[in-house]
Amino acid sequence: HLSVGDFLEGPFQTALQAGELLTGVRIPVLSASARWGYYKFCRKVGEFAETMAAVLHDPERGIARAVIGATEARPTVIEEGVKVDASFDAKAAEDIVERAFPDADWYKRRLHAAALRRAVEEAVR
Q1: Is the dihedral of CA 67, 68, 74, 79 positive or negative?
Q2: pLDDT tens-digit profile of 42-92?
Q3: In the chain, how many domains are there?
Q4: Model pLDDT for residues 93-112, shown as the tens digit of each residue
Q5: Disulfide-capable partner of 75 in 19, 46, 69, 88 (CB 3.0 to 4.6 Å)?
Q6: Taking Cα atoms as reference points, which of 125, 95, 91, 97 lies closest to residue 111?
Q7: Contact 56/65 with Cβ under 8 angstroms?
Q8: pLDDT tens sequence across 11-26
Q9: Is residue 112 part of a domain?
Q10: Domain for residue 57, yes or no?
């Protein structure tokens, strides 16, 4: 048994070894009040994403997290400071991205922050 964080090692790379086979996936059931949002940015339809973000907020289960990534590395799970409500703004997104991706260049941080903000907006609709 592996968590998804341990299973995914990078773009198109998993922890599966030669001869191993994935036989199942366990996904916890969300409560009726759970909300989620997703946003992907790519220059042309069908391209690999330059950035993408997904957020999940399940207040009954005490879950508020975001996942941000693209094709250059494995997705980054963020569980600190994610507030999935209408008060989440561009500044909040920039602060989270700055902490999660301190070595990213200005352009990549801006893309990640915009994707995160849009994913949160979708989740609170």
Answers
A1: negative
A2: 989 888 899 999 999 999 999 999 999 987 788 899 988 888 999 999 999
A3: 1
A4: 999 999 999 999 999 999 99
A5: 69
A6: 97
A7: yes
A8: 888 999 999 999 999 9
A9: yes
A10: yes
Find, among 36, 12, 43, the residue nearest to 111 by Cα: 43
- Residue owning tokens 């997705």: 75
The model's pTM: 0.87
CATH number, domain with residue 49: 3.30.390.50
Does residue 17 sit within a domain? no
SS (H, E, C) the chain: CCCHHHHEEECCEECCCCCCCCCCCCCCCCCCCCEEEEEEECCCCCCCCCEEEEEEEEHHHCEEEEEEECCCCCCEEECCCCCCCCCCCHHHHHHHHHHHCCCCCHHHHHHHHHHHHHHHHHHHC
Is residue 83 in some structural domain? Answer: yes
